[in-house]
Amino acid sequence: MRARQRVGQWKTGFGAVIGLIVLAVALACPVSRRAAAAPIRQGAGVLEFGVPVTGALDAETFRHVYQFEGRADEVITLTMSRTAGDLDPYLLITDGRGTILASSDDGGPGWDAVIASKRLPSDDRYFVIATRFGQEHGSTTGEYALLLERVGAGTTNTPVIHYGDSVYGRIAPDSPLAFYFLQAERGDVVNIALRRTSGDLDAHLDLALTNGQIIVSNDDDPAAEGTLDAAITNYTIMKTDLYLIVATRFGREAGNTSGSYTLTVTQTPPEALGSTLDEARLIDYGSVLEGALDDENPVRYFRFEAQRGDVITVTMQAASGNLDSLVKLVDSTEAVLFSDSEGSGQRDARIPAYTLPNTGTYYLVATRVGEQEGRSEGTYSLRLTGRPGVAGGRALEIIYGATVNGLIQDAHSAEEHVFFGQAGDVLRIAMERTSDDLDPLVTLLDSDRKQIAFDDDSGGDQNALIDGFALPHDGMYIIVASRYQGEIGQTSGAYLLTLELLRSDR
Q1: Other CB atoms closer than 10 Å to residue 362's CB: what's the count?
Q2: CATH topology of 166-268 equal to that of 272-387?
Q3: Fewer CB within 10 Å, N side or C side of the chain?
């Protein structure tokens, strides 16, 4: 795939972008009231709306610079299309000060670059840099066509649309795009529908950032087969911000259909979210979300993003009814990492200080004892807290009272977990096999990696247990979870590692 082909170019590509910023600043003059009357700078061609220009890039000439006059709140689209060779177009636009406003590598069909529906911030002279991926370090060459189009008139009267609103409009040959602002909060799940009401309009929807970057699009609503309607359904907003909804037609300004439409924007109610893993509700560190479980909805799913080594705590507290809470932590493969049904309260559930093994998406499953077959019901609050772990490299943090799981295999015969203790702390460290034929071996090292305790079979059934060991000094300690005979051992499987503070004798 193309992404893999480019991995080696990213480091040089970043340096090239820095160089491009310097170039843009050098080309741009200070903005002033006289900027519009300034002479065209040497080497900067002039772009006119609707008039394509052509050029060629090679090893000696790897970019061209163009300029055009733009008005405040004017909405433009820039397209750089390869017409010959293996050129991989890369496109940027800057203001008169040289500040990069937008860029595109693969925003269009194939490898073409498109900056779509970009709203200009002010009356200014703007610069367009047409180059290739990697710029001076790139290897592609060829010819291109560059087109600047005005897709929205300069106006500050772009309407704001709110959840629950329906508005009417028309897509015509001379006005192929209509714009609406939407203020949305992180975690909102939005639904946007564009329905044709007359003509042959083939509806198309874009949801974009206010800098013109499109984040999601739709042309054919999968829930309305046989129509030409468009819909963006159950999209989760990841950042609190002002967004731009673009109501248009298939092909946008290059399309040929027209007609009137109804645009509707709604928010999926929080209580309707999370019925399946695919529709899991977003939850952040520090958040407390509320919900309800009953026979009709006995399970709710939540998702969050985390880094390897993050230490999380999850509390599910029953608030009303006779709900007997059960909470699970699930990874992106749907494997259950931890499950608990007995928290601080008799009907609460808690996952205490769990260290996440990988970077990625995790899920919390809020349910009840017995799950689908359970009988309890009621409302609950779900709290997620998290922080970066203190360990680095391969080691993961573990704290008193925590349980972590892992996997021992031939290619990965040992895993390390670190914790901080004080002199006189009396510990129990248990390593329990949970799958296959693993013969656990647990070793305790001090901060100098000197072995101070180990065990192979004291836990029974080949499980390992260090029980009643008193720490000799304050500091960091390392628990090594491995197998009998280590690297040359023959057993493998999953395990649970538990660290308990029995008492402190200091």
Answers
A1: 23
A2: yes
A3: N
Is residue 310 within 8 Å of 389, Cβ to Cβ? yes
What class, spelled out in words, does domain 166-268 have in CATH?
mainly beta
Closest to 326 in 3D by CA, of 272, 282, 367: 367
**CA–CA dist 128, 20 (Å, integer):** 11
Report, in this order, helix, strand and coil percent for the chain, each rounded to 5. Answer: 10, 50, 40
Q: In terms of Cα–Cα distance, which of 446, 463, 440, 442 is closest to 454?
A: 442
| Secondary structure E strands in 270-368 | 281-282, 287-293, 300-306, 311-318, 325-330, 336-340, 349-355, 360-368
Instruction: Please measure the distance between the N-terminal and C-terminal CA atoms of the chain and give it in whole angstroms.
Output: 60
Name the DSSP letter for residue 272: G
Residue in 93, 99, 97 with CA at minimum distance from that of residue 118? 93
Tokens matching residue 227: 């129509």
Choose the weakest-confidence range: 89-98, 285-294, 342-351: 342-351
CATH topology of domain 272-387: Jelly Rolls (2.60.120)
Instruction: Give the CA radius of gyration of the chain.
Output: 30
Q: Which CATH class is domain 2-152?
A: mainly beta
Q: Which CATH architecture has domain 396-504?
A: Sandwich (2.60)
Three-class secondary structure of residue 248 per DSSP: strand
The letter for the amino acid at 276 is T
Task: List pLDDT tens digits, range 287-319.
Answer: 999 999 999 999 999 999 999 889 999 999 999
Q: Give the domain ranges of the chain.
A: 2-152, 166-268, 272-387, 396-504
Task: Please answer whether residues 120 and 74 qualify as being in contact, where contact means their C-beta atoms are separated by less than 8 angstroms.
Answer: yes
